[in-house]
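Are you able to produce any protein sequence you like plus the matching backbone structure tokens because I've never seen that pairing?
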Amino acid sequence: MGGEIQETRPAVILSNNAANTALNRIIVVPLTSQTARVYPGEALVTLIGESRKAMTDQITTAAKQRLRNKIGVLSFADMTSIEDAVLLQLGIRRRP
């Protein structure tokens, strides 16, 4: 509906390992291959050698049953970029 994602796509799991183990759902940031424009609150990452955009404005909860296969692992730098984008998207400032 509206700007919500309607298709199956790769995503980065944001929720912590303890929650992932205990709950039947996870928190994810969807990825897209549409990288021509990157807005504030989005992050460019590399997944299996391809440029992707993490859409932190689309953070969502998904049932574990919807997971398919693990297709890769992001670098520390890419995860830091996503973390920065999430904080910006949510209006959270890091403490000095």
Notes: The chain is about 20% helix and 30% strand.
